[in-house]
Design goal:
Elements: H1 4-14, H2 20-33, H3 47-58, H4 63-71, H5 74-77, H6 82-109, H7 116-126, H8 130-145, H9 153-173, H10 177-191, H11 193-208, H12 214-227, E1 232-238, H13 241-249, E2 262-268, H14 271-284, E3 286-287, E4 293-294, E5 307-312, E6 318-325, H15 326-334, H16 342-353
Parallel strand pairs: 2-6
Antiparallel strand pairs: 1-2, 3-5, 4-5, 5-6
Helix pairs in contact: 1-2, 1-3, 2-4, 3-4, 3-8, 4-6, 4-8, 6-8, 7-9, 8-10, 9-10, 11-13
The protein binds manganese (II) ion (MN).
The site of manganese (II) ion (MN) has 4 residues, from loops.
Length: 356
């Protein structure tokens, strides 16, 4: 696990103006509050709030949010009160911690029969500040990463379902695709392990039977663009077993048809270059019908922007390509947290949530 100093070093890399003293103080406060508690995996409890704070740090959030990450379980699980958090850390942080505590209380109350949609709405109404929800998502992510240590089997399934039905869709609405993907896949491994194993087996088979590599294809694509005067970087990401499972469920592919397992992300300077890049690829390679989507001219409901296309690429491989600018890439990964300014993010958040 990372200790407090590592956490602070990481915070300094993206914002040296954050209030390091407050974060330090929150760490010591949480350490003392949880001193006699252990996680189910047998480790000191403090590991959990530090891990949550680390996830929030990776999202490059402000010091009040990271402080809340460290303190988020103190009111719920220890003798610490709202008043004492307010006295030590001020009203802003106390309200955030209180908000996270209220969502946890909702979870405990919500019976199995309450509809996912209603529960999501209830959570939204409770999180008056978007940062409450960001801390809650980080909290759930770490709990799902360590779910295998929970002893109560019914609880494991309940948490996995809740994650799939409530928290992954919330992450999706906020454009936080990386967190959504991980939440879905962690839940999938609980809810349908045999299917996940089968898909992983197929993925390994495909990987072993490809003589091309991601590197050689992306090298070729970069050269092609360079010749046409476009500077690009290409990032790849393997699809998650759950995203493949969803495609199979929607009958878009069968497991046997599964060939393209790496998505290519071409990141260029500006929107103009996005369309030039598309033109270059489409004139060089044959396109696969029905796969072209322009989310730059028509963004997704959560503000996601990119151009998607699939082509028969170098060495006759079917490849999926996403074309985007760096700003679009940042948004696709971190969503609403990527252009963090409290007031303006709050506005975007409210308008996204109206459509939930
Ligand atoms: Mn927690």
């Amino acid at each position: 696990m990372i200790n407090n100093n590592e956490l602070i070093d990481q915070i300094k890399t993206y914002n040296k103006f954050l209030n390091i003293e407050t974060v330090n103080k929150a760490y010591n406060f949480a350490l003392e509050a949880h001193q006699n508690q252990k996680r189910e995996e047998g480790v000191p409890y403090i590991i959990h709030p530090v891990a949550v704070a680390k996830i929030l740090t990776e999202l490059k959030l402000d010091s009040a949010t990271i402080t809340t990450g460290l303190l988020h379980d103190t009111i719920e699980d220890t003798k610490v009160t709202y008043e004492s958090v307010k006295k030590e850390f001020g009203e802003e942080v106390a309200n955030l911690v209180d908000g996270v505590t209220k969502i946890s209380a909702l979870e405990n109350k919500a019976a199995n029969d309450s509809k996912a949609e209603n529960f999501r709405k209830l959570i939204l109404a409770t999180s008056k500040d978007i940062r409450v929800l960001l801390v809650k998502l980080a909290d759930r992510l770490h709990n799902m990463r360590t779910i295998q240590f929970v002893k109560d089997k019914d609880k494991i399934i309940r948490k996995a379902k809740e994650t799939m039905e409530i928290y992954a869709p919330l992450a999706d609405r906020m454009g936080m695709n990386r967190i959504r993907d991980e939440l879905e896949d962690l839940s999938f491994s609980v809810l349908n392990q045999p299917a996940r194993d089968l898909i992983n087996e197929r993925l390994r088979f495909i990987k072993n039977n490809r003589d091309d590599t991601f590197k050689s294809i992306s090298g070729e694509l970069i050269d092609l663009l360079k010749k046409n005067g476009i500077e690009a970087t290409i990032a790849g990401r393997e699809k998650t077993p759950f995203s493949i499972w969803r495609k199979i469920q929607n009958k878009k592919i069968s497991l046997e048809q599964l060939t393209d397992i790496i998505g290519f992300r071409v990141i260029v300077k500006n929107v103009e270059d996005c369309y030039k890049t598309l033109g270059i690829f489409h004139s060089k390679f044959s396109t696969i019908p029905g796969k072209f989507k322009d989310y730059i001219s028509t963004p997704k409901i959560n503000n996601y922007k990119s151009i998607h296309t699939s082509v028969i690429g170098p060495k006759k491989n079917r490849i999926e390509i996403q074309i985007r600018t760096f700003e679009m890439h940042e948004f696709a990964e971190r969503g609403i947290a990527s252009h963090w300014k409290y007031k303006s993010s709050e506005k975007i958040f409210r308008s996204l949530m109206e459509r939930i």
